[in-house]
Amino acid sequence: MASMATLFVKTPSPSPSFPKTFNTHFSPALKLSIPLASKPRTRQRLRISNALIEPDGGKLVELFVEESKKGEKKREAASLPRIKLSRIDLQWVHVISEGWSSPLRGFMRESEFLQTLHFNSLRLEDGSVVNMSVPIVLAIDDAQKRLIGESTRVALVDSDNNLIAILKDIEIYKHHKEERIARTWGTTAPGLPYVDQAITNAGNWLIGGDLEVIEPIKYHDGLDRFRLSPAELREEFTRRNADAVFAFQLRNPVHNGHALLMTDTRRRLLEMGYKNPILLLHPLGGYTKADDVPLSWRMKQHEKVLEDGVLDPETTVVSIFPSPMHYAGPTEVQWHAKARINAGANFYIVGRDPAGMGHPIEKRDLYDADHGKKVLSMAPGLERLNILPFKVAAYDKSQGKMAFFDPSRSHDFLFISGTKMRTLARNKENPPEGFMCPNGWKVLVDYYDSLVPADNGKVPEAVPV
Amino acid sequence: MASMATLFVKTPSPSPSFPKTFNTHFSPALKLSIPLASKPRTRQRLRISNALIEPDGGKLVELFVEESKKGEKKREAASLPRIKLSRIDLQWVHVISEGWSSPLRGFMRESEFLQTLHFNSLRLEDGSVVNMSVPIVLAIDDAQKRLIGESTRVALVDSDNNLIAILKDIEIYKHHKEERIARTWGTTAPGLPYVDQAITNAGNWLIGGDLEVIEPIKYHDGLDRFRLSPAELREEFTRRNADAVFAFQLRNPVHNGHALLMTDTRRRLLEMGYKNPILLLHPLGGYTKADDVPLSWRMKQHEKVLEDGVLDPETTVVSIFPSPMHYAGPTEVQWHAKARINAGANFYIVGRDPAGMGHPIEKRDLYDADHGKKVLSMAPGLERLNILPFKVAAYDKSQGKMAFFDPSRSHDFLFISGTKMRTLARNKENPPEGFMCPNGWKVLVDYYDSLVPADNGKVPEAVPV
């Protein structure tokens, strides 16, 4: 993956003009207090960083323990009650600790949980409102609650008992699962992937508090170097002199319809007067359902798309968004957009039925295909974000390539669904020429080829992540 | 009900100092444009009206057709497609037309419906936010949708085909019932009363639009004169020189614990420096579930409470709130509070588990008893309203009366639940002396006595409304 690495791998040492504390130059206090005229070097830094949208709450949250205090924190943690984190819990610690959920400083306490469920937003102490649509919570069971007793802090450890973080000033409250599910997904039907994975068998209590994270979260899967934090992304956009950042969330292979859309978006931004719009191509890297293409294969596919020149490496940053996937449609798309504000994006591309899926027990889509876009455009706390609705691209048989759908000659167009794409790749068939770059397609075929067929000789639709 | 009528029946002719257009003196435009010093009479009116909280959106909505245009509107309606309203639909027309849901001007269009479901609030054109937590929508079925065709307006008629209103600039959109229920109630369990009554068998489409209501809604049940509109209540509060209005929503008989709370609230408001706090005792008058005590009996009971001097008629306005009941707990309590802002209340008393009920299929309460109060205190658009949490009152055996619960001598207190109260009244037993005024209690006993026993000789718990 060498070629991709040059595009978005973390810079080993920061460029000399930017301090290691990435978020310093986004602090509003700094903007107000420094006399710009007398400090030209400071002014230049401010000018550039001002081009990026401010993080929610005004300051990007980062929750890592300072190097000098690590020993002390580790000793402290040794004496605290221990809570073992699931893989998804760990992904949320990752998300919170790097500030994707700024201004959240830890797992939600009840007041944040309730505001999220009822209002999809949080009111801050100064009266301002930030968006927050999915509950970011940590469940514990009765035994763990008893173990914690009167302690005001707990140690969070991974499955191998390695210390991950301390959760302090904790608050324990009831985990009303049915209500959480109903208000987040708009259904309580059995078979919602995230619910089955992370809620149904979780404990009946939630524990909120502030996080002190010992080390940045790593997965040791060969992809950690592609997991840029919001601060690192902001630094990268600043380094590239971006005056607009447009984010594209995805959890599927990139086909030429996506590429057309992204290229066209850049063209439109240039027309609007921006000089250097940068694309954040931002595949979701946390939990996904079993029949989605796994992250490692998607990253290989994205690499090929860049190698083949379908997207311009000069104006594209590919990075991994560490959040788990809820498949909660209009509720979740707000989270996807809000997190990208914190990473510096001021434009967000939204398509048909974002974060949607089929209804788990009825023969229909779970969400109205237009609701995601509509809800996103009206969501509290996202007023600063420019929403770019997705134009529909389809395969234009008359041109032999992906093009924006023209209803006046609809017979020329072929819609290739995700299911159709997967079926073709699974059967090693080729899609129409121009649907996806050939090397990208080969990755997909290789992926399905790598799956062990089930006893009946069929390649299973569901693949464990 | 003569004695009660003197307290809150509509004034036949408005007092000379207040014009018939009640809401004129709440208009912010008026406040800004009239030079106060030169018009003492105007100034006096403004001073008084300023004591009342401003309606949501700045101006109280009233949607009645002017007298001079009624003929024209009726002729127009005759040529329009007709939609027949259910009893609950009619209650919502009542609610919307008098401005309880200001600034709503009709049944919700999709953008309002989605904002209500996801954010419990609406963003207005000027960027400000008002609370709106329950969907106020009108369902139609496929046949009605076909009948409407391309028409941009429809006539709304009651069950006897009397013209009620014209709905104009209509928008028809999908009625996603499961999602509506899940996001409003936080459950989709079968047996939610409002869902069974008004959603399950309703049509698969919703029709939004602006209302032009031909005549104020009347029920001809002997209680219409007690149904004061928000404008009429505001006039009444102004007439009484109220400098604070505290609302108490209820759908149950008033016992001495309620009375203690209301009296104590007035005492606290006086201590805070208010000179004349007025209580709005505001029983809900729309749809209620079968085992609630019907409105007519509750009104008789409230009358006795005032006659017996448990509450002070001088500082109490009893009126009927025309909304149907959702039993949607923390979601609905916001609606109950928001509607009272529009009626002029700036203080709202909230108790344990407001608008709650038992879970329809599990042996527990549907909502956490504290969530209503918490959600209400954080709700967007209700920042202007002062939330007064309900102190717990119980029967103090040592004093032989209702008193605020004192945990330090909990053994002295007896909690009498609604179920216990109903069981006693049904069996013609008396509660402990001091629980409820004797004449009020007699109304309850009479009510249960009036019910026809079921075949098994037992008085049914469920009574059709």
UniProtKB/TrEMBL annotation, chains A, B:
Keywords recorded for this protein, A-Z: ATP-binding, Chloroplast, Nucleotide-binding, Nucleotidyltransferase, Plastid, Transferase, Transit peptide
ATP-sulfurylase PUA-like domain span: 53-215
Catalysis performed (reactions): sulfate + ATP + H(+) = adenosine 5'-phosphosulfate + diphosphate
Signal peptide: none
Domain Sulphate adenylyltransferase catalytic intervals: 225-446
Keyword Nucleotide-binding: yes
A Pfam family matched in the record: ATP-sulfurylase
Keyword Transit peptide applies: yes
InterPro entries per the UniProt record, alphabetical: ATP-Sase_PUA-like_dom, PUA-like_sf, Rossmann-like_a/b/a_fold, Sulfurylase_cat_dom, Sulphate_adenylyltransferase
Subcellular location field: Plastid, Chloroplast
Gene Ontology, cellular component aspect: chloroplast
One GO biological process term: sulfate assimilation
Pathway membership, UniProt: Sulfur metabolism; hydrogen sulfide biosynthesis; sulfite from sulfate: step 1/3
EC identifiers of the protein: 2.7.7.4
GO molecular function, one term: sulfate adenylyltransferase (ATP) activity
Family, similarity comment: Belongs to the sulfate adenylyltransferase family.
Descriptive protein name: sulfate adenylyltransferase
Organism listed in the record: Prunus yedoensis var. nudiflora
Lineage: Eukaryota, Viridiplantae, Streptophyta, Embryophyta, Tracheophyta
